[in-house]
Amino acid sequence: MDILRQSYAYGKSPLTATSRSKPYHAFLFGASISKSLSPLLHGILFKSANAVWSYEKVQTTDRSAFEGILAANDTIGSSITMPNKVTFGSSLDHLTEEARIIGAVNTSFVRTAPDGRRVHIGTNTDCVGIREAILQRYPTAPSTSKGKPAMVVGGGGAARSAIYALWKWFGSSEIYISNRLDSEVEDIVQYFRQAIPGIQLRHLDSVDRVKQLPAPYIIIGTVPDYPPTEPGEILCAAICDAVLRKPQKGLLMDMCYMPSPQTKLLRTAANKGWETVPGTDVLVRVCVAQQTLWVEEMPNEAGIKQALAAMSEKTKAQVAKL
């Protein structure tokens, strides 16, 4: 995988022939992570790689706590989630291109500098998860989507990762953005026009505007699956519905998977003839990318299939409780 090859630009491997039998640790840092499914998935993937490593949740927004845990010699890497994706980046030694351009870090990994120091590298594997989740289901998507508009629903960190993925790997001619808050869209547009000169972004702010524009080929949803109640949410939902009703169809990914991966947006898209990709696929592929950087080997297909199956069973159980 390209991310592994690129990771060695920051230093050599810290692993040895016996590293997988040693008690290394990876951690998840975030504010509300009690229901995170990442420990389940990483446990499966570590086991499939014959690594006796652990993956532990640390519910904190304290950067000093993060720095202290990373300083331990048995820490092999970390996952970083909200609200730490921006603030924790400055504690790392280097940031990859993805992390710098997106402006957020969700993963750190360790490499060894020429002087023998352990260095911690921050990257963004959310965008890689988006790419891989689409490619696994629709391998021809990069060529089919090239030169066509795309669309992102939302204005947070996941939306920024989606914009980067659409620009970097899917050749989108223009990216529409629809969101409940105009101010968030304005911030994103201003940020990316500086980070990626020449990128074409358009605020999709009315149903009438939808009628005037060609349909996007790829749509990526990044907002929670709650019924719209506020005016901005209601308008955003109406814009999405208008886009999905257009005669030209493509594929829609919804990164939301709680409480069910079959979100309203995903169901609506499928009913209107769109191909779909659930958010559970994205989470698994994000974990696969993280494992690749930590274990320094792409997880085997048996482990990935087991992780996908476990994710499916877990979300079914959660839905049954509702």
Automatic annotation (TrEMBL):
Residues 28-107 form the Shikimate dehydrogenase substrate binding N-terminal domain. InterPro entries: Aminoacid_DH-like_N_sf, NAD(P)-bd_dom_sf, Shikimate_DH-bd_N, Shikimate_DH_fam. SUPFAM superfamilies: Aminoacid dehydrogenase-like, N-terminal domain (SSF53223), NAD(P)-binding Rossmann-fold domains (SSF51735). GO terms for biological process: chorismate biosynthetic process; shikimate metabolic process. GO terms for molecular function: shikimate 3-dehydrogenase (NADP+) activity. It holds the Pfam family Shikimate_dh_N. It comes from the Eukaryota. This is Shikimate dehydrogenase substrate binding N-terminal domain-containing protein.
